[in-house]
From TrEMBL, chain A:
InterPro entries: FAD/NAD-bd_sf, FAD/NAD-binding_dom, Metab_Enz_Cyan_OpOx_G3PDH
Top-level taxon: Bacteria
GO molecular function: oxidoreductase activity
Domain FAD/NAD(P)-binding: from-to ranges: 5-302
Protein name in the entry: FAD-dependent oxidoreductase
Annotated source species: Ruminiclostridium herbifermentans
Keywords annotated in UniProt: Oxidoreductase
SUPFAM superfamilies with a match to the protein in the record: FAD/NAD(P)-binding domain
TrEMBL record, chain B:
Entries under Pfam families matching the protein: DUF1667
Upper lineage: Bacteria, Bacillati, Bacillota, Clostridia, Eubacteriales
InterPro entries documented for this protein: CPE0013-like_sf, DUF1667
SUPFAM superfamilies referenced in this protein's UniProt entry, alphabetically: CPE0013-like (SSF160148)
Gene3D superfamilies named in the record: CPE0013-like (3.10.530.10)
Highest rank taxon of the organism: Bacteria
Protein name: DUF1667 domain-containing protein
């Protein structure tokens, strides 16, 4: 039996919850949120540190507190959230198949919002040589074990990768009595926020070793040691610079990948750089009526923008359901010099649009320019640009008057 | 005699790198490069009376989860963090645990409370 729904949202994390609330407020009553975990809230449930919601609520909330605001609002709006259910398949004609303890169900939605979040890169993804003992964890898994399950992951720890989760776990594991020997970063700069380096490493005297990587793991039952070395500009280890740490645990914080297996089955085109769907300014994917938001679209550093993206996806999905999205967006946005990616990847002219982007490496006092052919449309100067921090720039409808090509680049 | 220190602000994701001028009495005489007033206040505190928010977990007996997450409701003096963690380790709460339940009030006479940041229901 096919169950009909106006809007199905896959994932009850910060993106999915914000989308559901916004859709309901915009008059779509028949909203269903599907979540594979037992509780709504997504990754926020295990992020017990504070700093969430600074932009949206002007408060430094913890993850569970931030999530609760949305869960409570969803409850008060009577939004249907089914947890402990796995979405097995989404088809391009928006048929959603789910599996849960109550069996297999099939839904047909008018519109779908993808909000599945991301997953972590693992040891296999970065090919660290050595034996394969116990004691190698990704930062998020360590966070889940320590913060939710009361399982300590190790006593003497080396962390590879200086992303925010790695930095936060350095502090967290120190709080729980572990000795964090070093945070090792392959790049010549940290990929985490400055404030986290200060309050998670500097406060505890944990060294941050830039331009270093792990070249060997030793141990049979359990990690016994990790050997690191300096790397050259190409990222290759430099002979004679190796250093061995006796430790029992290696934590990996080496990047996040949007989790798009379901999107691929639905025929959604994925962007090679972001790992998320290619979208237009409505956050609509290449499949009409399927929208994407949050970390499944692009990996964010701030949850506030995840929620905002969920709300935008919901507003445009509601327009789609009501039949008021007609025009196809066909102006391609190109990431030029110094810009790793820019989103949305295609736009329609004459609309207010917020662009999000990341730069390729750290810059000081540089200007980001939007150009249509030889016509400069907008420029904005930044004191500092950092690959770890997403840049957002608003363009007004009048800025995008009759634009035919759009390129974004850093003026050298 | 005065000296300068660079302080990275931890108040918000901007992470301003502030230049702080400190006089001979360890008083802050100048804060440069802060984008906002909160940053200035943080820089002055950081020199004279460094504080941090504390977030951690506490054991829960008979709960649907074995832990409840907690935080300080205001930043606490930095040198008290380790003692505070030791206090948290001694505590066991019995489920159900309420959201924003006060676990420790007036921690070490600082006026800071430790509160839960989620609710934990009984194990069914």
């Amino acid at each position: 039996m096919l169950i009909k729904k106006d809007l199905i949202i896959v994932g009850a994390g910060p993106a999915g919850l914000a989308a559901a609330i916004e859709a309901k407020k915009k008059g779509i009553d028949d909203v269903l949120v599907l979540e594979r975990e037992l509780n709504a809230g997504g990754i926020l449930n295990q992020c017990i540190h504070d700093g969430f919601g600074l932009i949206r609520f002007k408060e430094a909330l913890t993850g569970p507190e931030y999530a609760k605001r949305f869960i409570d609002e969803a409850k008060s709006l009577n939004i249907e959230i089914i947890t402990n259910v796995m979405v097995q398949d989404i088809s391009s004609d928006k048929v959603v198949t789910t599996i849960s303890p109550s069996g297999i169900k099939t839904y047909k939605a008018s519109a779908i919002i993808l909000a599945m979040g991301c997953r972590e890169r693992t040891r296999g993804a970065i090919c660290i040589p050595g034996t394969r003992p116990a004691g190698v964890f990704t930062a998020g898994v360590a966070q889940n074990l320590v913060n939710l399950k009361n399982i300590m992951v190790g006593k003497r720890v080396v962390i590879l990768g200086s992303g925010d989760i790695g930095l936060i776990m350095a502090r967290r594991l120190t709080f729980e009595g572990a000795k964090v020997l070093a945070v090792v970063e392959k790049l010549p700069y940290s990929s985490g926020l400055q404030r986290n380096i200060t309050q998670c490493l500097d406060d505890f005297g944990i060294p941050l070793l830039l331009s270093h990587t792990v070249i060997k793991i030793e141990g049979h039952e359990r990690v016994k040691s990790v050997t690191i070395a300096k790397v050259d500009e190409q990222g290759n280890p430099i002979r004679g610079t190796s250093k061995k740490f006796e430790c029992d645990t290696l934590i990996l914080s080496v990047g996040l990948i949007p989790e798009n297996e379901l999107s691929l089955n639905a025929g959604v085109h994925i962007d090679d750089i972001t790992g998320g769907a290619r979208v237009d300014e409505n956050l609509q994917t290449s499949v009409p009526g399927i929208f994407a938001c949050g970390n499944v679209l692009q990996v964010h550093d701030l949850v506030d923008y995840v929620s905002a993206e969920g709300e935008l996806a919901a507003r445009t999905a509601v327009d789609y359901i009501n039949g008021s999205i007609k025009n196809k967006s066909d102006i391609t946005v190109i990431a030029g010099n110094g810009i790793r990616y820019v989103l949305p990847q295609s736009i329609s002219p004459n609309k207010d649009i917020t662009f999000s982007m990341r730069v390729t490496s750290p810059y000081k006092n540089k200007t980001i320019i939007f150009k249509d052919g030889n016509r400069q449309i907008k420029k904005k100067t930044f004191k500092a640009l950092n690959p770890a921090e997403m840049v957002r720039i608003d363009l007004k409808a009048q800025d995008l008057n009759d634009v035919r090509n759009l390129e974004v680049f850093i003026d050298e | 005699m005065s000296n300068n220190r660079e302080i990275v602000c931890i108040v918000c994701p901007n992470g301003c790198r502030m230049n702080v001028q400190i006089d001979a009495n360890n008083k802050v005489s100048l804060v440069e490069n802060a984008l906002c007033e909160k940053g200035k206040a943080y820089a002055i505190d950081e020199i004279q009376f460094p504080k941090r928010s504390l977030t951690s977990t506490i054991r829960v007996i008979d709960g649907e989860l074995p832990l409840v997450s907690v935080r300080s409701d205001k930043p606490i003096p930095k040198e008290k963090i380790q003692c505070a963690l030791a206090e948290l380790r001694k505590i066991e709460l019995k489920a159900p645990v309420e959201f924003h339940q006060v676990v420790i009030s007036d921690l070490f006479g600082t006026g800071v409370n430790i509160i839960t940041t989620k609710g934990v229901m009984n194990r069914t």
